[in-house]
Amino acid sequence: NSSNTFLCIKFSVMQPGTHVWPHTGPTNCRLRMHLGLVIPKHGCKIRCTNDTREWEEGKVLIFDDSFEHEVWQEADSYRLIFIVDVWHPELTQYQRQTLSPI
């Protein structure tokens, strides 16, 4: 049902030396949440527009992935996050029911 709160739930493992080039998500009708599960001390960061942050274990980063973003994994070990996409909070219930989840 497209009115559900969660649109997509997945894990993301990123190995050392990975760089995800600047890109944008397909829609601005969702927000993306990243929960840090296994995060090396230094070298794992994400930039969304002009704001660059590092993941932290047990903490959530929330961003609108329709804005340009990129990721660097320059640590010595893998990074594991749990990703949850949710409807953008400014959407109405009607919009949630009529839009296709992406």
UniProtKB/TrEMBL annotation:
GO CC terms in record: endoplasmic reticulum
Residues making up the signal peptide according to the UniProt record: none
SUPFAM superfamilies in UniProt: Clavaminate synthase-like
Gene3D superfamilies according to UniProt: B-lactam Antibiotic, Isopenicillin N Synthase, Chain (2.60.120.330)
An MF annotation (GO) of this entry: peptidyl-aspartic acid 3-dioxygenase activity
Source taxon at top rank: Eukaryota
InterPro entries xrefs: Asp/Arg/Pro-Hydrxlase, ASPH, IPNS-like_sf
Domain Aspartyl/asparaginy/proline hydroxylase: 4-89
Family stated for the protein in its record: Belongs to the aspartyl/asparaginyl beta-hydroxylase family.
Protein name: Aspartyl/asparaginy/proline hydroxylase domain-containing protein
Naturally occurring in which organism (per UniProt): Amphilophus citrinellus (Midas cichlid)
Taxonomic placement: Eukaryota, Metazoa, Chordata, Craniata, Vertebrata
